[in-house]
Amino acid sequence: MQLGVIGLGRMGQIVVERVLDAGHDVVAFDLNSEAVTTAAEAGAETAEGPVDVLDRLGDERRVWLMVPAGEAVDATLDELAPHLRERDVVVDGGNSHFEASVRRAERVDAAYLDCGTSGGPAGAELGFSLMIGGPAWAYEEMTPVFDAVATGPEGHGHMGPAGSGHYVKMVHNGVEYALMQAYGEGFELLFEGRYDLDLESVARTWNNGAVIRSWLLELCEEAFREEGSDLGDVADHVAGGSTGTWTVQEALEQEVPVPLIYQALAERFASREERFSRRLANRLRYGFGRHEVARE
Amino acid sequence: MQLGVIGLGRMGQIVVERVLDAGHDVVAFDLNSEAVTTAAEAGAETAEGPVDVLDRLGDERRVWLMVPAGEAVDATLDELAPHLRERDVVVDGGNSHFEASVRRAERVDAAYLDCGTSGGPAGAELGFSLMIGGPAWAYEEMTPVFDAVATGPEGHGHMGPAGSGHYVKMVHNGVEYALMQAYGEGFELLFEGRYDLDLESVARTWNNGAVIRSWLLELCEEAFREEGSDLGDVADHVAGGSTGTWTVQEALEQEVPVPLIYQALAERFASREERFSRRLANRLRYGFGRHEVARE
Amino acid sequence: MQLGVIGLGRMGQIVVERVLDAGHDVVAFDLNSEAVTTAAEAGAETAEGPVDVLDRLGDERRVWLMVPAGEAVDATLDELAPHLRERDVVVDGGNSHFEASVRRAERVDAAYLDCGTSGGPAGAELGFSLMIGGPAWAYEEMTPVFDAVATGPEGHGHMGPAGSGHYVKMVHNGVEYALMQAYGEGFELLFEGRYDLDLESVARTWNNGAVIRSWLLELCEEAFREEGSDLGDVADHVAGGSTGTWTVQEALEQEVPVPLIYQALAERFASREERFSRRLANRLRYGFGRHEVARE
Amino acid sequence: MQLGVIGLGRMGQIVVERVLDAGHDVVAFDLNSEAVTTAAEAGAETAEGPVDVLDRLGDERRVWLMVPAGEAVDATLDELAPHLRERDVVVDGGNSHFEASVRRAERVDAAYLDCGTSGGPAGAELGFSLMIGGPAWAYEEMTPVFDAVATGPEGHGHMGPAGSGHYVKMVHNGVEYALMQAYGEGFELLFEGRYDLDLESVARTWNNGAVIRSWLLELCEEAFREEGSDLGDVADHVAGGSTGTWTVQEALEQEVPVPLIYQALAERFASREERFSRRLANRLRYGFGRHEVARE
Questions:
Q1: Cα→Cα distances C208→B10, B67, B140, C201, Å
Q2: How far is residue C252's CA from residue C269's CA, in Å, rounded to a whole number?
Q3: Is A87:A108 a contact under the CB 8 Å cutoff?
Q4: CATH 1.10.1040.10 domain range(s) in chain C
Q5: Mutant choice from C234, C242, C262, C274 vs D, greatest count of D C-beta within 10 A
C-alpha cells in the first residue's frame, strides 16, 4: 500500500518509519527540507508539496497529515482540497479539536478520518494508540496502515462518525491530566510525609503488581531515577493545557461533572502565577481577625 | 451581675468592656500586668490569679475564660478545678476543639459552657455572635452577660449539650474559609479578566443590594480601598488553618462531603510552598511527550 | 425624567414601580397585556409596542429592556434599531452574556448600557445592585433612574466599557453558586453531625455578629424556619446553571483557577442524574478486589 | 525456608500457594476450619492455633499474618506475643493503619514487618506488590518469601523503618481512589457526550499504546465487556473508604493539598445519600430568585 505523509516532525517521522517497516511505500513532504531528507534516508519517496504528494500516489490516494493542530491543518487542506476526489482518504493524525474535524470532513470531497494519536515518542518502538472517526469504509481500507502505525490491530479502533476520533482523544487527554495529578499528590504526600523514602523504589515496587501500576507510573519511576526523589531543579510550572481545557468545556456543555479533571487543569493554571484569591484571603484575615498580613 | 474574666487579650478586653458597659461588675485577671491595668482603667476590679478571681466573686461565681485554645485552657482549669463547686459557671470563649470541651465539662464540678465566639475586633462595637453548649440552666443564668457580650439577645444561642457550642463554631470557621476563597476566586477572575475594573467599586456596588452582599464582602471593599485593586504588596501566603482542618477531619469522620471547605483549606497549604505534584507533572510531560522541562 | 420600560415580568414591574415612586414618568410595554395593565395601574403610560415606546418618549429617549436574556433581547432590538439615534440610551437589565452585550452595543446607534441586576424579588423594597457597562455619558445621564432602581447612589456603579456590566454580574453569579454551596456544606455537616441542632437558631445566631453573616445566610435562616431543620421535602435537585457555566468558561479562557465555583456548578449537574463515574468505581472495586458490586 | 501463615482468607490462601509453589514449607492456621482444609490440600502443614504455628516452625520462626486489619491483628498478637523472641519475624500483610503498625512493632519482641500488599485476587497468578517497613535484617532474611509472594524481586521493596510499608500502601490506596474517579469522569463524559461509543473498544484502544494505559484501565475494559457500555444495573453507590480517609487525614496533618484524592473520597460519601447542601441550594434559589423549589 502507498501512503502520503505531510508533516515530518517527530511524530510524522515515526509514522513514516513504521509504515515503511511494515513494507508499505511512503511519499513524504514537509516545509522543512531537513525533515524531508530524514524521511528520504528512511526510504520514503519525497515530494515538492502537498499537491505533489497526491500526484505521486497514483490511483489510491491516502494522505496522512501530521502537522500542528490549527491553522497548519487548514492551510494544508486549502492546497489539497481542489484536487481531492471522493475515493481519496485524508487522515488528520494531530490534536485537532473535534469540531474542527467535523467541519473539515464536510468541507473536503475525500473521506476524512480524524485520528487521535497517543503514545508520544515511545510510540516509535511500540506503536501508537489510534482513535479514529469518519467513514467506516475508509477506516477499513486504511487498516494495513493503522496496523503498522499503531501497536497492532488492537491499538486502533473506529470510534464512530466524523469527529469521534478527536473527541475520544480529547477526553483521553483530560483523563491524562487527572492521572498525572493523582500520582503527583501521592508522591507529594510521600515526599513531605513522615518517612524518608526512595521514591524511585516506591514507584518500582508499585509498578510490579500493584493496583495502580501504569505506563505513567513507569514514567514517574524514570523521573525519580533521573532527577532524584526530590526532583532536583524541576520547577513548579506546568505548561500546556489546551486539550484539558477542551475537555472541561465539553463537559460543561454536556453538564457532566469532572471535578478531578478540572482540578488537574486548574493546578496547571495555578502553577503559572500568584493566586490573587489567596492574597485576598491573606488580607481578609486581618479584616476580621487582625491576623498579621504577610507582605512581599 | 458579677463576672470574672480570665485572659485579657484583645478579645478578653472586649468582653470586659461590653459587660461593664451593660452595668455589670467584672473581676479581671491576666498573666500580663499591662493587660490587667487596661482592664482596671476600664472599671474592672482586678485579681491576683484565677483562684483569687473566684474568691472575689462572692456567691455567684461565673468565670469567662478568654485564653488561647489548648494548654492555656487546661492550665487555668488546673488551678480553678479544686475550688469549683456545682453551681459555679465556667465559660470557655476561645476556639477550643469541641472534644476538648466535652472532656473539660466532664472534668470540672462547675457547669461548663463552651462558647464559640465570632466577630473579631469589630465585635467591640457591634458585639459578638456566641454559640453556646452546655447545661441549659447555666446558659439561662448567664443570659444577661451573653446579652451584653453578643450583639444582643439575637446574637447568642444555646446550641445543645457540652461541646455543641465549639462544634458549631468549628463549622462556622470551615464555612468562613470557603466564603473567603469564593469571593477570592471571583475577584481574581475580575482582576485577571477582560476589563480594567475598580474592585472597590465592584465590591461597594455588590454590597448594596446584591445577592452576595455580606460582612466579608464589606471587608473585601475595605481591603481594596486600603490596598488598591491589585492588593499592592499583599503576599500569596495564607496562614492559619487549624479550625478548618478540624472541620474537614470531622466531615471525614461523619462521611459528609465538603469539597469547597476542603479546597479552601488546601489553598492555604498550597500557598505556603512549592507543589511537588506539579513539579512531577512538569517532568512527566517530558516523559511521554518530550515537552521541555521548566527548571529553576 | 422619562423612562421607557419594555418587558414587564416580575423584575420589570419592580423597575416601573421604583422609577414611578421616585417621581419619574414611565412608558411601559409588554407582549402580555395583563402585565401592561398592572403597569398602568401603577401609574405608567402604556404603549403598543417597542417602537411606540420610543415615539411616546419625546426627545430624551431612554429605554430599559427587562426581557429574558437571549433571543428576546435581539428581537426587541431588531424592532428598535432602525429608529434609534445616537443620543438615545438603551439599557439591558437582564442576564445577557457579556459578549452578546458587546455585539449589541456595536450594532445599535444609541448608547447601549449593559446592566447586571442583582437582588431578586427582595429588590422591590430595598432596590437592586446595578453593575453597568457602556458609555460614561449615558451612565451619567441615567443616574436619576439608576438611583431609583438601585438601593440608592451606592447601589449602582459604572464598571467600564460595553459588556463590563454583564461581565461583573456573571462573576457575581459564579461567586453566588460557591457561597450557597459553602453554606450548604456547613449546614450538611451540622445536620449529619454529632449534635441534634436547631439550624434556624444556628443561622440566626450567626447572622447576628458572626464573620460569615450575609444576606444568603438570612435566606438560610428563613428556609430553616419555613421548612424545618431537615428541609422537609425539599429535593436534592438544583436547577439553573447558565451564568455559573459562563463564569467557568471565562475562567478557562483567562486561565484563572476557580475550583470552588467549578465545584459548586458541578454539584448542580451531579444533582440531576446518577453519576456514571461512581457506577464505574463501584464495578472496578470488584475488578481488583472482588468487593461486592451494588446493583439496582 | 519455612513460613507460618495465620489467616487463610482469599489473600492468605494466595500467600500459602505462592510460597509453596516456590518450594518453601508452610504451616497454616485459620479460625475457619474449611480454610485450613483448603491450605492443607494445597500442601501446607496445619496448626491448631497461632502458638501452635510458632511451635511447629522450629528455629527459624517467621509468621505471616493475613487477618483483617484492626482487632483481629491485635488479638492474634496477644496470643503470639508471650512466645515471640528477638530473632523471630512477624509480617502483617493486611491493610493496617501505619500508626498501629508502629505501635505493634514496639510491643513485640520479634522483628515486626508491616507489609502493604496490593494486587488483589489477580495476584494469585501474577504475584503481589509488597511495600515493607521494619528492620532491614528481617526484610533481607525474608527475601525468598517476598520473592515468591510478590511478582518477583522487583515486586517488593524495603521502604524504611516500622510503619513505612503500611504508610506507602495507604498513599497507594489514596491514589487508587483518584485514578478510578479520573477514568470514571472520562468515561462518564464519553457516555453522556456527543457520540454513541463502544466503551469497551475505547478502553481496548487506549490500553494498547496510549499514555493513560494501565491495569485499572484493563479492568475498565473488562467491566464494559461484561456489563455493557451503559454498565447495566451497576448502582451509583461506592462502598469502602477507610484507607482513602486515612490518606486525607495524614495529608491534613502534613498540610499537603490532595484535592483529587479528597474529591474521589467525597464522591464515595456522596454516592451513599442525598446531599443536604444541594437541597439547601435548591431552596435558597427560591429565597433570592423565586425559582421554583423541586420537591419530592
A1: 20, 23, 19, 11
A2: 18
A3: no
A4: 169-289
A5: C234
Burial environment of residue D48 by CB neighbours within 10 A (0 to 12, 13 to 18, 19 or more): exposed
Angle among Cα D228, D229, D231 to the nearest 5 degrees reads 65
Residues paired with D4 in a beta bridge: D27, D63
Decide if A255 and C248 are in contact by the 8 Å CB cutoff. no
pLDDT in tens, chain D (296 residues): 999 999 999 999 999 999 999 999 999 999 999 999 999 999 999 999 999 999 999 888 999 999 999 999 999 999 999 999 999 999 999 999 999 999 999 999 999 999 999 998 888 899 999 999 999 999 999 999 999 999 999 999 999 999 999 999 999 999 999 999 999 999 999 999 999 999 999 999 999 999 999 999 999 999 999 999 999 999 999 988 899 999 999 999 999 999 999 999 999 999 988 887 888 888 878 877 788 888 88
For the sheet with B129-133, list strands across it. B45-46, B25-29, B2-6, B62-65, B89-92, B111-118, B129-133, B156-160
**Residues A79-82: contacts with CB under 8 Å, at least 24 apart:** A79/A49, A79/A50, A79/A51, A80/A50, A80/A51, A80/A54, A80/A108, A81/A107, A81/A108, A81/A109
* A235 contacts on B by Cβ (under 8 Å): 279, 282, 293-296
Report yes or no: A193 at the B interface, CB cutoff 8 Å.
Answer: no
CA separation for the pair B251, B234 (Å, rounded): 32
- Could you say which DSSP state residue B105 is in? H
3-state secondary structure of A74: helix
Chain A contact for B126 (CB, 8 A cutoff): no
Distance CA A74, CA D156 (A): 52
- Taking the Cβ of residue B240 and every Cβ of chain C, the question of whether any pair is shorter than 8 Å is answered with no
Outline which parts of chain D fall under CATH 3.40.50.720: 2-161
Q: What residue of A is the nearest CA neighbor of C243?
A: A252
Gap from B60 CA to chain C (nearest CA, Å): 27
Residue recorded with cell 451593660: B22
Give me the sign of the Cα torsion angle B70, B246, C219, C171. positive
Mutation target to probe the B interface, by most B beta carbons within 10 A, among A118, A282, A296 is: A282
The C-alpha atoms of residue A187 and residue D260 are separated, in whole angstroms, by 13
Between CA C149 and CA D181 the distance in angstroms is 48
Could D272 and B255 be called an inter-chain contact, meaning their C-beta atoms sit closer than 8 Å? yes
Picking from B227, B288, B289, the nearest residue to A283 by CB comes out as B227
Q: Using the beta-carbon criterion (under 8 Å), do B255 and D241 form an inter-chain contact?
A: yes
Q: Does the CB of A213 have a partner CB in chain D at under 8 Å?
A: yes
- Neighbour count for residue D229 (Cβ, 10 Å): 18
Asked if B291 and B274 touch (Cβ cutoff 8 Å), the reply is no
Q: What is the maximal distance between C-alpha atoms in chain D?
A: 79
Return the CATH number of A169-289, one of 1.10.3720.10, 1.10.1040.10, 2.130.10.10, 3.90.850.10. 1.10.1040.10
E strand intervals along C134-189: 156-160
**C-alpha closest to that of B117 among B134, B96, B103, B90:** B96
Catalytic residues of B: 169, 176
CB contact under 8 A, C163 and B194: yes
Q: At what angle do helices D259-270 and A164-192 cross, to 10 degrees?
A: 110
Name the DSSP class of A87. T
B286 touches chain D (CB under 8 A): no
CB atoms within 10 A of CB A210: 32
- Quickly list H helices, chain A: 10-21, 33-42, 50-56, 71-80, 98-107, 123-126, 136-141, 143-149, 164-192, 199-207, 215-227, 242-254, 259-270, 276-289
The answer, as to whether pTM is greater than 0.80, is: yes
Q: Which fold has domain B2-161?
A: Rossmann fold (3.40.50)
Which residues on A lie below 8 Å from B169 (Cβ)?
A: none
